[in-house]
Amino acid sequence: MKYQKLYNIAFSDKHSIRWERHFLFWLAVFLYHVVRIGMMMPAVNSTSAIRALLTYSLTWGVLPNMFITYLVTYYLVPKYFNRQKYIAFAISIMFVMFILIAYVIFRNYFDLDPRLRSAIGLSGGFTYIYNFKPGIIRVFGNPPLICCLFLSIKTLKNWHLEQVKSETLAKENASAELQLLKAQVHPHFLFNTLNNIYSFSLNQSPQAGTLVKKLSGMLDYMIHECEEKLVPLEKELGLIQDYMGLEKVRYGKRLDMQVEIHGDFENKVIAPLLMIPFVENSFKHGTSQMLQHPWIKLEITTVKDQLFFKLSNSKPSLFHASNQNKGIGLINVKKRLQLLYPGRHQLDVSETEDMFTVNMQILLEENVFAETKMIEAEKALAYA
C-alpha cells in the first residue's frame, strides 16, 4: 500500500496527485536554495538576515525558475521543439534568457540584500555584467539546470507510462488472441468427434448412443469449465481419456492403443485444451491413414510440478509429417504455449520413417498458488 502511494505520486496523471508531485518538486528546490545560500552566508543570528534568506530563496530560487520551467516545458517545447521548429525554439530560449537577465539586473540593483549579494558573488551596481565571478554563473546556471531536471523527470514519467500502456495493450491483445485460439479448438474438436459418431450412425451401430453420451459429458466440460484460464489437471486428463475411449470404440481391435497416466495430479492446474490437439492429430493424420497395424502410445507423467507428455503414433511410410505438424490444432497449441507458458515449456515434435512423436514438458502451478496469484493480480488492478 505504501509503495503504491509512492508510485502514484511519481507517475499518476490524476490532477490532485499532479499538484502534490509539483508541490514536492518546488519545495525541494526551495529547500535546496535555503541550504546552499545559507551555507555561503556568514554566520548571522538576526531575524532580518534569515527573513532575507527565505525571501530570496522563494522569490529568486523558486518563482523565476517555476516561470521559466513551465514556460519551456508546457509551451515552448510542445509548440516548437516537438514540431521540429528548432530555430524558433532557439530564438524563444534566447528571449527567455533576456527576461532572466533583466530580472537579475533589477533584483541586484534595486532589491537584493547586500549580504546575499556578497554571498552569491554579485558586486553592486552594474559592474557584475562583465564580471564573470562564480556567483553570476550560479545565478544564470540555476534556471537551465532546474528546467532540464524538470524536463528529465517529466520525460522519464511519460516514458514509463508509455511502457505500462504498451504492456497493458500487449496483455489485452494476448488475452484476445488466447480467446480466439481457444474458440478455434472447439469447432475443430467437434468436427472430428461428430465425424466419428456419424460413421457409427450410418451403420446403425448400437454404440452410437454411448458415443453421444460421452460426447455430451465432454461438451459440458468444454463449455462450462474451459472458459477459465486454468482448469484442474485431473479433469483435463479425463477429457483425453474420454476422447481416446471414443476413438477406441471406433477402431475396435484394429487399433493397438496404450495409455499410461501416472503421478500426483491433485491440486495441479493447467491451461485447458492444451494436450487434446496432439491426441486428435495422432488419430486424424496417423491411425486413420494406416490400413494395417495402427498403434498409438500415450504417456503422461507428473513429477512434482513438472508435466511430461509423450505421444507416439504410427504413420504410413510415404506420409509427410508436414501434414501432421502443421495442422490447425498444432499451430494453435504452439501459439497458446508461447503465450501461456513463456520460458516454462518445452515442445519437441519429431518423426521417423514409420513413427511420429510429440514430447512436451510444462512447468505446472499448484491450484492454491494459482488462486493466490489471480487474487494478487486483481488487487494490483484495483490499485492501478
Notes on the protein architecture:
The N and C termini lie close together (11 Å). The chain has 13 helices and eight strands. The protein has a five-stranded mixed beta sheet, covered by helices on one side. It has a three-stranded antiparallel beta sheet with strand order 1-3-8. Helix content is 66%, strand content 12%. Helix 7 (134-202) runs antiparallel to helix 8 (207-224). It is α+β, with helices and mostly antiparallel strands and 384 residues long.
Task: Tell me how many strands there are.
Answer: 8
Terminal Cα span: 11 Å
In percent terms, what proportion of residues is strand? 5-15%
Averaged pLDDT, please? 75
Rounded to an integer in angstroms, the radius of gyration calculated over CA atoms is 36 Å
The total of helices stands at 13
> Would you tell me the structural class of the helices and strands?
alpha+beta
Helix-strand blueprint:
Layout lengths: L1 H10 L3 H26 L6 H13 L3 H19 L4 H26 L2 H6 L14 H69 L4 H18 L6 E2 H19 L4 E7 L5 E3 L5 H11 L8 E9 L2 E9 L6 H5 L2 H13 L4 E7 L3 E9 L1 E2 H17 L1
Parallel strand pairs: 2-4
Antiparallel strand pairs: 1-3, 3-8, 4-5, 5-7, 6-7
Helix pairs in contact: 2-3, 4-5, 4-7, 7-8, 7-9, 7-12, 8-9
